């Protein structure tokens, strides 16, 4: 099992930047693909990004591609989401998630139901 906790959210103006972090505890962090999702008020939780076990491969939603960067540190057991050029539509609660079975190479890892472990979320608010 793995326990997850996000940090780094806050209020930022449009065009600004934030870095979210997700700290993991438990064993074998490097065995898990790590995903980021977000949920805006009144909307379903949506995929943002996923990173492979080694960190060598990353995938992004089209809406955040070229603005967000995901990376991980398997020694520190952390995954980060660097967000630049933020827009008001990026406002949401951001969640990190972990699962050892997803495989974006084969089309999984993009849906909420595919992840076994979740953090509590961190609020990101982008003002216009």
List keywords for this structure.
seven-stranded mixed beta sheet; 128 residues; four-stranded antiparallel beta sheet; 0% helix; mainly beta; single chain; globular
Walkthrough of the structure:
The protein is mainly β and 128 residues long. It has strands spanning 2-7, 10-13, 18-26, 33-39, 46-51, 58-60, 68-73, 78-83, 92-99, 117-118, 122-127. Helix content is 0%, strand content 49%. Strands 2, 4, 5, 6, 9, 10 and 11 form a seven-stranded mixed β-sheet that branches. A four-stranded antiparallel β-sheet has the order 1-3-8-7, with no helix packed on it. The radius of gyration is 13 Å and the shape is globular. The termini are far apart. The mean pLDDT is 97.
């Amino acid at each position: 099992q793995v326990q997850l906790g996000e940090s780094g959210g806050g209020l930022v103006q449009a065009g600004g930047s934030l870095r979210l972090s997700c700290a993991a505890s438990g064993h074998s962090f490097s065995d898990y693909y790590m995903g980021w999702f977000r949920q805006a008020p009144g909307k379903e939780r949506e995929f943002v990004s996923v990173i492979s076990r080694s960190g060598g491969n990353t995938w992004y939603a089209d809406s955040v591609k070229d603005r967000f960067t995901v990376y991980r540190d398997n020694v520190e057991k952390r995954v980060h989401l660097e967000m630049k050029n933020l827009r008001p539509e990026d406002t949401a609660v951001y969640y990190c998630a972990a699962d050892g079975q997803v495989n974006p190479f084969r089309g999984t890892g993009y849906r909420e139901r595919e992840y076994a472990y979740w953090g509590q979320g961190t609020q990101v608010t982008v003002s216009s």
